[in-house]
Amino acid sequence: MSLQNPPVNSLSLEFLTDICISVEKLEMDKTCRGLIITSSLPKVFSAGLDIMEMYGKSPERCGEFWRAVQEMWLKLYGSNMVTIAAINGSSPAGGCLMSMTCDYRIMADNPRYSIGLNETQLGIVAPFWFKDTMTNTVGHRTTELSLQLGQMYNPAEALKIGLVDQLVPEDQVSHYSHTNHDQVTTPDRSKSMMRKPTIDKLTSKREADIQNFVSFITKDSIQKSIGMYLEMLKKRKR
Ligand SMILES: CCCCCCCCCCCC/C=C/CC(=O)SCCNC(=O)CCNC(=O)[C@H](O)C(C)(C)COP(=O)(O)OP(=O)(O)OC[C@H]1O[C@@H](n2cnc3c(N)ncnc32)[C@H](O)[C@@H]1OP(=O)(O)O
């Protein structure tokens, strides 16, 4: 599955819906045992959630958006396929979350790229299931430090903390993700045994999580932080 939503593969409601439909189709295809997620765009795996979906939108629309984010996570984290993230560019926040849902992460060894949960930098708090996914990937203490600082990691740092499993030359990410994943076997009961408690936690709190998100994101102070962050993103470009 090659992500293609220019300019930066931000996860809008529409794009999330497309991703969910694609994953569902592959999941039902009995001939398909594995899924490699990568990006068709240069330099960016995914810029994470589309910030415009969280800025100036109605509570109803925000709720619909959040349900789609949850659905993407539930489908990928609970997938019965072998899943590999071929991270061929930067992958902040929701992009990092998406790659952490996979069984194995291969990243391009380019120091200009970064990956991590940077929500704190936007003045927002990473939801509990983002935190749980990271804890399951890199452990409690690293997650605590990482979330408090909104830390982004270059590929070498990400490998060191176990956020990615393998670094490869940039032009070989696709090759390695198709051929070099001996470490990942066909998902069996162990995958669901390890992930089920985390999945059940969100499933049982899904509606409350949507309500929390909507009331948090529509607060004036949070809208102001997001607006300032958007300005910063645009200025940084000039
Ligand atoms: C205590 C109470 C608890 C209650 C709990 C409730 C829970 C609520 C919590 C809410 C949590 C919400 C979770 C959010 C997770 C996210 O994913 S937020 C998104 C975070 N993403 C980012 O910060 C990425 C920002 N982007 C970048 O760093 C860079 O763009 C890039 C490294 C990805 C790519 O760089 P480059 O190639 O140089 O492109 P740019 O010129 O920067 O960007 C091009 C273009 O795209 C726009 N853009 C970039 N990212 C996004 C995005 N995520 N969404 C929308 N748009 C984006 C950027 O502004 C440029 O636009 P223009 O061309 O200037 O118009």
Automatic annotation (TrEMBL):
Keywords attached to this entry: Acetylation, Fatty acid metabolism, Isomerase, Lipid metabolism, Mitochondrion, Transit peptide
Compartments where located: Mitochondrion matrix
Swiss-Prot/TrEMBL GO biological process terms: fatty acid beta-oxidation
Segments for region (Disordered): 176-195
Signal peptide: none
Matches recorded under Pfam families: ECH_1
EC number, UniProt record: 5.3.3.8
A GO term for molecular function: delta(3)-delta(2)-enoyl-CoA isomerase activity
SUPFAM superfamilies documented for this protein: ClpP/crotonase
Pathway in which the depicted protein is active: Lipid metabolism; fatty acid beta-oxidation
CDD domains per UniProt: crotonase-like (cd06558)
Assembly, per entry: Homotrimer.
Protein role: Key enzyme of fatty acid beta-oxidation. Able to isomerize both 3-cis (3Z) and 3-trans (3E) double bonds into the 2-trans (2E) form in a range of enoyl-CoA species, with a preference for (3Z)-enoyl-CoAs over (3E)-enoyl-CoAs. The catalytic efficiency of this enzyme is not affected by the fatty acyl chain length.
Stated family: Belongs to the enoyl-CoA hydratase/isomerase family.
Protein name: Enoyl-CoA delta isomerase 1, mitochondrial
Taxonomic placement: Eukaryota, Metazoa, Chordata, Craniata, Vertebrata
Gene name, Swiss-Prot/TrEMBL: eci1
